[in-house]
Amino acid sequence: MATSLQRQALQRKIFYLGAVVVLLTGSLLWRKGVVEAKAAQLAVREEDVGDVEIVGQAVRLSMTGLRGMATCVLWMGAIEKQKKNQWNELELLVRAVTKLQPHFITPWLFQSWNLAYNVSVESDQPKEKYFYVSRGIQLLAEGERINRNDPNLRREMGFYHQHKICRSDENNVMRSLFDLSLIPPKDRDPNNFRNEKGEVDRKKLAEFCEQHPHLARRLHSPPLPYDPKREYPKFVCSSPEEVLQFLEDSRNIPSLYTEKLEDEAAYNAGEVKKNPRERFPVLPPRREQILDPEDWGGWTEDALPNKSVGERDATDAYYVAGAWYNYAQECVPDPSDKVPGQPKPISDAERTRKRIPRSMSIVIFRTAPARATTFIAERLQEEGWYDGEGFRLAKWFSEDELLRWLGAEKDGKIGRGTAWSGDAWRKATEAWKRFGRRNLLWFESTADEQNMNNLATQFAEEYRIGSGESPPVTPDRMSPEQRERYDAFMFMREYNTYRGLTNFHHFRVCSDIEAKEKTIQARKMFYEAEQLRVAQAFHRQALARYEDPRALNAWRELLIENEEFRKDDTVQDQTAEIQAKYLDLYLSQRREKIQQELALDLYLGQCGMPSPLGADWLTLTLHERAALQPAPEVSGPFDISVKGVPLISEGIRKAAAERRK
What we know:
Layout: H1 4-42, H2 46-49, H3 54-63, H4 67-83, H5 87-100, H6 105-119, H7 126-146, H8 151-166, H9 171-181, H10 202-211, H11 213-220, H12 240-249, H13 264-269, H14 293-296, H15 309-313, H16 317-328, H17 362-366, H18 368-382, H19 399-406, H20 420-438, H21 446-463, H22 480-502, H23 504-514, H24 517-535, H25 539-546, H26 549-561, H27 563-567, H28 569-606, E1 641-642, E2 645-646, H29 650-659
Antiparallel strand pairs: 1-2
Helix pairs in contact: 4-5, 5-6, 6-7, 6-8, 7-8, 8-16, 10-11, 10-19, 16-18, 18-20, 20-23, 21-22, 24-25, 24-26, 25-28, 28-29
């Protein structure tokens, strides 16, 4: 028979067991009914934050309290691998770090930037640089999927595409590789363009160029560099053989499509990779509503592969960047409908999916989609796509071959029939107007703007304050009339501040003028003149392009007719560069004649002087030497003033001259 102590011990065990059951049941019910409901409301569950990665979750749970130390060890190991140029091991360690800290944004941002920037520049071949840029972007894309609704990750996705492909030092070859990523590997196989003898099948290559005019022109006649001190052509293929060699060297670049080693049947069918995470370029996922669908509605991961060959050929990394910039706008607060440039307060319902970007002012953050449309238009002009005239591949094929293979009705040119520049600038104009309306930086009429300005001025004069100062009074005890003037003053203060901060006026005015046919034709003539001068060294033909009435004269008329356009600092800087290039070309072609005439004028002026100060005709031939000739002074076509103001300000003129030294 049990003693009293044993009975007490048994009773305690039963009580403890019952307490455990009750507490466990209560905790489960509490978790189910309260904790999980609150977690769902605050969107802090794993599935609410982003895509759930099972393997990484299991590793993190097994690490318990050692996860932080393991992350530090792996991070230091990655730095050591980078120092030793052990890139494969570095990438493995980088991915291990992100597995351990999937919801800490910094590792995703830093390590993706490390691959796309630091590691890529260590490679010699552009193809290898392109590979590591793509790996950095894909790593960041994985971080964006795991950390949903983070505006910083989405914006950086766009910036990497824009900066490392379209604006890199080797942008011509990087853009060309990007084009190849959008072409099925079987369609760009160099063996497709060789005959039975292994020679170039010129007809098939010409047909390929007709399908991909942007890629073909970029390889045939690359855009000129921006720096006037380094005027030399970029990466170029001088012959059809070099084109095939470029295709051969670029066989295994990252792309949208399945490779032959992965699935031969899918390769032959030109199918895209089934896993969107393995595709390149990386695009945002499909969703029901897209901000600015007229610009970015078709730029999702499932829509790009279905675009036609021509649409994909005209695509560049700026389109992908714009899609990501637009996607990033969906997780920042909506613009205020009362104060220019300010966001609406984040409501409780939006708190889990709306965030303030941490890297810049929110109004600058919102300019990115419109800015991308401007980049697209500028890229088209940079590469020579102005109107529907098209381009002839004169270095690769004879005129007879082009007329026979591409069609006489097309004049043997590729890329005909599309108003490339005009269409792009009109889209940019509309994008900037939409941005201005949403952020209250655009008045629909000058009368509305003038009325608001008048009210703001009255308030400033009443209280003797400047336009950027804070009012010395609060609106609590103001009359309705005073409150109206106060609101107008505050509105215009923010209006002027954020228009200057975003440079909105410059982009709106310039995109509007650039869309005009006269501007497009002038830009086209300047482009052709520079191609003749730098790439082909045809100086006389280049001078004729500049002096064509559609070039310098037309540009001068545009400046005179559009006051806001000519006062823009960027336009003045471009005008100074145009004039400097023209005068260099003009003087190089006319210097001998001009200097001889000046020398003769000098002697004729001495004729009226008595001996021994008179002209010495026996030494006239000495003054034909360049060192003894007076330097000619020639006025440029833009050395004029409008209403007493020079077309090019003195400060910008000096800065342009300094750059060319």
